[in-house]
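Hi there. Long-time user, first ticket. I'm pasting a complex I've been working with (about 531 residues overall). I'd like to know whether the download I got is complete or cut off, because the file seemed smaller than I expected. Thanks.
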Amino acid sequence: MILSPAERAYLYESLVQKPAIRPGARSDHQFRPLEAKTGFLPNSNGSARIRLNDGSECIISVKSKVVVTRGESSLIEVDIDVPGFRDDSNFVSNLKFSLTNLLITKFPVEYLRLTSKYSFKLFIDCIVISHSSYPLSLISLTSYLALKTTRLPLLTSEVNDEEIEEQPTFSDDWDNAKYIHPTFQPPIFITLGVIGENLLFDPSIEEEQVLENGLILSFYKDKVITPIINMNLATNSNNSNFKGLNQKLIIQSINLCNKYCPAIIKALDTLIEQDDENDDTDNHIF
Amino acid sequence: MSRMELYSPEGLRIDGRRWNELRRFESRINTHPNSCDGSSYVEQGNTKVICMVQGPMEPSSRSQADSAGATIEVNLSVASFSTFERKKRSKSEKRMVEMKATLERTFQQSVMCHLYPRTLISIDIHVLAQDGGLLASMANAVTLALIDAGVAMYDYVSCISVGLHDQTPLLDLNGLEEQDISTLTIGVIGKTEKLALLMLEDKMPLDHLESTLGIAIAATHRIRDLMDDEVRKHGNLRSSKLAKN
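Hi, the file is complete. Here it is re-exported in full:
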């Protein structure tokens, strides 16, 4: 239990107001401030770190490997490590399934094709160093940054190797490495809290304790896509306010996300650009 | 024997260092001010380690409460992307368990545990990249994080790895060198010659041990100075902020 009954009641009352009064003076559609850094792991093809102001932090590395396309069931493998939770616990496997599922269904695999026989396989490894609120949206925003900054070596051999027995060869020069695709935008997850008639973006841990329901929407190519998940975001305590979900609010949440999420994507893209400019001078994680 | 020449007749190693040269050592403290009591980040060459300390705090289970002093618990997690070839590592791997136990024993002795009876000091270590000298970097990171957490210690525990190539001791081995020559990791308390940590995973001829230890101890004193610089730099930064308010 994080909050006392009195605190819960107070927070609940302020959040059901129209407009909601959120702790931290955020508006309904405002995210918590975050700081991020990309490209700090020289051993990985792409890396990113996001830290929220409450101390939640996630580090993601993207590594690639050349594989025979026919032998692989999927070209993307996601692994999530949360200290204090076993790898086979419900919490970790839910996070892992959600992210894997989203990436596998929406990732344009043709970008990973090298030749008619070979492809790149991407290994996306996440470490959630610490977290307070439900970390799925934090992980997915970090994976957005990591995938956007992933650079793969340039293929120098023939693309069509149907007839010839040849393994792909690559340019030795890392400066020739290419991003996955210039227009590629990885899908992301956005968490929304439902309380009364209000929909709150990115609920903090205190807000999660009093929410009536939680929604996780996925967003790709400027619009909301499936899966849309509803769940109790307060995973570490039983939430007595938890209720069923009004259908109208689902439609409303989709509209809200369509309206505000492009701004999130734009902010992340700006962040990458700024990081690119400083890249030569500063490769440090902190 | 490997195909690579680890130590050329001219006295140069594969990364261009001389036998007695350290790799780039960089450290930061208080890197995670909002999520734990003390934190640090250490880069020793291409080895990168994050360390976070919680405590001294009330232990979650009675069995961890020792009425004579604090219990120190180390959680080690080595990322699967930390080596060039991605490899998933389990926590129960023999080498990991041994390193964890070594660190726990070292810091149980170096922290003034008797000042914190019935408490738990929990240390989380995340290895982001490894290129030799893993245990040394971890111990250095733990020292810095404990200082940041304000836990009383007798002095810095500064650590370094050293190898023996034929008759020459080589200081602060990188990953390639570590694969081929026997490596000794030592941890020294402050500017003394007292060893708090000593780990040798293979064999080393006894007649060369003294010279090897000698250079290693000198190196740990240098590492201690580098860590002290960072701590003082951070301290000045904090006190300047206090003065403004």
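A couple of notes from our side: Chain B has a mean pLDDT of 93. The longest helix of chain B spans residues 209-244.
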